[in-house]
Design a protein that fits this description.
Blueprint (H helix, E strand, L loop, with lengths): L45 E3 L4 E4 L8 E5 L4 E8 L6 E5 L7 E4 L21 E3 L4 E4 L8 E5 L4 E11 L6 E9 L7 E4 L19 H14 L25 E3 L4 E4 L8 E5 L4 E12 L3 E12 L6 E5 L16 H16 L8 H13 L12 H5 L3 H11 L2 H14 L46
């Protein structure tokens, strides 16, 4: 995927030359000194422009200027190139500006290095705002994988971008899993259109903002404005609960921490709204409206009461959730499950040959063992074993009947002094990209850089 784009405007090299674009000097925008900056630039982040910034067609920050960002503009960062100095980023400016490259400074003099609240994040969970297409890869031309409907929720597994090649069509792309027990599809979507329309609602449902959303829903129901807009996971006679032991959840309303599971004993304190709690045990407690209500023994992981332990209610007496059902550890659990699928599909690893182990043991016992740089045989060395050694190795694990059949095959293939060996090998699948490796079973899966952090680095 090329980094250089075609341009529509005049050129200038960074650090020299004459700018053919005449721009009026714009007043800069200052930020409060007590507001901390983010530690690093992140793909998917939206950033405020503080003073005039040129957008270049190349990551070398030379060639043509394709757009100019002015104070109070907002840019969307879709890729980072850190293998050069200075670090630069591929950005989408406000419409109708053309995407291009800007310098990502270490300080916040030109660009506020603090993501806006409407940024897109790795590991975040979003609601679908408008119908959108799910595809198998980050390219808009990749195969169709399904449709997302409004009010569905998706978990972001990776962030990448689509580039048409000429710079006219650059889009942020997100690899997501649909949050559904029935059909947890995985694929790529655009969080927003090229015109900035949000296909996903830019509110992380795993963040503290969900507490305010919950409060607004409660108020709307009390006023009779919206019926049934509050999440209610519990109904009379319930058997299963959505909260899992070992999960971490956000508290939606300030709750009382009890000593006993029946919630009638001594009170140990409070758990503030927006706190995070880990569930250690789930039980049912007596409840007037529902006869029984779910309660849990929890440890407060984050919040004013961090470290506190005790029993809390999980739902109110009318059944609405007072502890969110979205697991904060969902991303880690999905990745672990996909990694396990990859492991289960990997070839069986056989232990070292018996004679090698015996030789090693005898050498250590009599003190004659010598240190060698190739004492551990690599996979490539194993592939280059002599054919006779391979046959001996194979004979140890093959049934006698199979060995006789293979021997007959070899004899039949010996024609004119030439011998053609029958080698059973699994087909090798060459993968050219990581576009859909989050759900594949290739050997590159474990080293995919985008699974290590939310920053996509292009080398």
């Amino acid at each position: 995927m090329p980094f250089g784009f075609g341009s529509k405007k005049g050129g200038v090299g960074k650090g020299g030359g004459i700018n053919t674009i005449a721009e009026e000097e714009e007043p800069s925008v200052s930020i409060p000194k007590d507001v901390p900056c983010d530690a690093e630039w992140l793909v998917g982040g939206r950033y405020d422009i503080l003073s005039t910034v040129q957008v270049w067609e190349n990551p070398s920050l030379s060639g043509e200027i394709v757009a100019t960002l002015k104070p109070k503009d907002i840019m969307l960062l879709v890729a980072i190139k850190s293998s050069q100095s200075p670090t630069c980023g591929l950005v989408i400016p406000p419409t109708p500006g053309q995407p291009g490259w800007v310098e990502l400074p270490a300080s916040s003099n030109e660009i506020n290095k603090r993501r806006r609240k409407d940024s897109w994040e790795m590991k975040a969970r979003y609601a679908v705002n408008h119908p959108t297409t799910l595809r198998t890869g980050p390219s808009l031309a990749s195969a169709y994988a399904g449709e997302l409907e409004p009010d569905m929720e998706v978990l972001v597994l990776d962030l990448s971008f689509h580039n048409s090649g000429d710079g006219t069509q650059v889009r942020l792309r997100a690899q997501v899993q649909v949050c559904s027990d029935k059909n947890p599809m995985i694929g790529w979507v655009s969080p927003e259109t090229s015109h900035g329309d949000r296909l996903l609602q830019p509110v992380n449902l795993l963040g503290p903002e969900v507490v305010e959303m919950h409060r607004q829903s409660i108020m709307a129901v009390e006023k009779g404005e919206v019926a049934g807009s509050v999440r209610c996971s519990i109904r009379p006679g319930f058997s299963d609960v959505p909260w899992e032991v070992g999960g971490r959840y956000r508290v939606l309303e300030t709750l009382t921490l009890h000593r006993d599971a029946d919630l009638k004993g001594a009170q140990l304190g409070k758990v503030s709204a927006a706190s995070l709690v880990s569930i250690r045990e789930v039980r049912k407690a007596p409840c007037r409206a529902l006869e029984q209500c779910p309660c849990a023994f929890v440890t407060v992981d984050a919040g004013p009461e961090t470290g506190g332990q005790g029993w809390i209610r999980l739902s109110a007496e009318d059944g609405h959730d007072i502890v969110d059902t979205r697991d904060q550890l969902e991303y880690e659990k999905v990745i672990k499950r996909l990694s396990q699928v990859h492991t289960d599909q990997s070839p069986i690893q056989h232990p070292p040959r018996a004679e090698n182990r015996e030789h090693s043991n005898s050498s250590e016992a009599d003190g004659t063992g010598t240190e060698s740089t190739d004492s551990t045989q690599s996979d490539s060395d194993a592939e280059e074993q002599a054919p006779e050694e391979k046959e001996k190795e194979k004979a140890k694990v093959e049934p006698k009947e199979n060995r006789e059949k293979n021997k007959l095959k070899l004899q039949e293939l010996e024609v004119g002094g030439k011998e053609e060996k029958v080698i059973d090998e699994a087909p090798v699948i060459q993968e050219d990209s990581y576009s859909s490796c989050i759900s594949c079973s290739c050997t590159k899966r474990a080293t995919h850089p985008c699974l290590q952090s939310g920053t996509r680095v292009i080398n």
